[in-house]
Amino acid sequence: MRRVVRQSKFRHVFGQAVKNDQCYDDIRVSRVTWDSSFCAVNPRFVAIIIEASGGGAFLVLPLHKTGRIDKSYPTVCGHTGPVLDIDWCPHNDQVIASGSEDCTVMEKEKAHEGARPMRAIFLADGNVFTTGFSRMSERQLALWNPKNMQEPIALHEMDTSNGVLLPFYDPDTSIIYLCGKGDSSIRYFEITDESPYVHYLNTFSSKEPQRGMGYMPKRGLDVNKCEIARFFKLHERKCEPIIMTVPRKSDLFQDDLYPDTAGPEAALEAEEWFEGKNADPILISLKHGYIPGKNRDLKVVKKNILDSKPTANKKCDLISIPKKTTDTASVQNEAKLDEILKEIKSIKDTICNQDERISKLEQQMAKIAA
């Protein structure tokens, strides 16, 4: 019987590690046996948890600062215990949160039968994708309907490796990338509403095992090269970017690869969310590339309940890079920046309209020439 190959525009996604001079070298990546990614990335910085004595610390490097990192390079310190996890604010590329060994998260409801660590992420359609272990310590991936957690929509056994599978999800393409700690590969799958729902696409393999992994937000990718994902693989003493691209012959913008994506602007304030309000993400177009706007000022409206606890029990630190003071002049500057951003948007809209007009005229010329 002839096997029917499922059609997908992502079947030929190609992964490639960058050259050595584009890596971040001589970094003492943390040896803590914790199942987090140890790395966080945004369009401006890459942050990496490192080995440190007398508490925890992590590095924050501008993306362009590749090559050998000097041992005296400043680190972000302040934790009394090892740093276990870090993540960038999605609405301000200069703000990062860190959690130390004092921060414990308990998960009471398990989707997998094994006692080993698991991961869960919400998908764009409301379903939940999980990775975990079976009773026989086999690594599994599963797809769940949150309204019925008794039986999974799909359940696949992967292998018997010990490393936790870290899932990275792109809601624009419905692709999930699985990076196992200690593995030397990245496997990727496409989520659809057709059985078996979780479709294997391909595997990127390398020689060295990964100690952690960072994942670039969509707005930080190079659309001119049809780049749909970029990972930052942690070695023992190096951070290596890995680029995923879809081969295309045309140099034109690929609308099917880059639908409007979530931008940095928040759809709701925290107070509105606590009041029960909800809103879809504010989307941006990547057709002309992502142009960073003004970062939102970090404003603490309510007192942090952790401030009343002893220093040793503090669980998270918010670090702003750099720290800004607010005064009358900053308010005036903000108003001027808003005007400039509005003008930039107006110019971009005009350019888009002209592009469409030029395209129509070229089509008319082609018809006449034919």
Task: Characterize the structure shown.
This protein is an alpha+beta fold. 13% of the residues lie in helices and 31% in strands. It has two helices and 23 strands.
Strand content: 25-35%
Low-pLDDT segments: 104-109, 312-326
Largest sheet: 6 strands, mixed
Describe the global form.
globular
What Rg do the Cα atoms give? 23 Å
Structural class: alpha+beta
**How far apart are the termini?**
47 Å
Number of helices: 2
Give the total of beta strands.
Answer: 23
Task: Sketch the topology as an H/E string, one letter per element.
Answer: EEEEEEEEEEEEEEEEEEEEEHEEH
Helix content: 10-25%
Return the average pLDDT rounded to an integer. 83
Provide the fold topology.
Elements: E1 14-17, E2 24-25, E3 39-41, E4 45-50, E5 56-62, E6 67-68, E7 76-79, E8 83-88, E9 95-100, E10 119-122, E11 128-133, E12 139-144, E13 154-157, E14 165-170, E15 175-180, E16 185-191, E17 198-205, E18 212-215, E19 227-234, E20 238-245, E21 261-262, H1 270-274, E22 283-284, E23 316-320, H2 328-369
Parallel strand pairs: 2-6
Antiparallel strand pairs: 1-20, 2-20, 3-4, 4-5, 5-7, 8-9, 9-23, 10-11, 11-12, 12-13, 14-15, 15-16, 16-17, 18-19, 19-20, 21-22
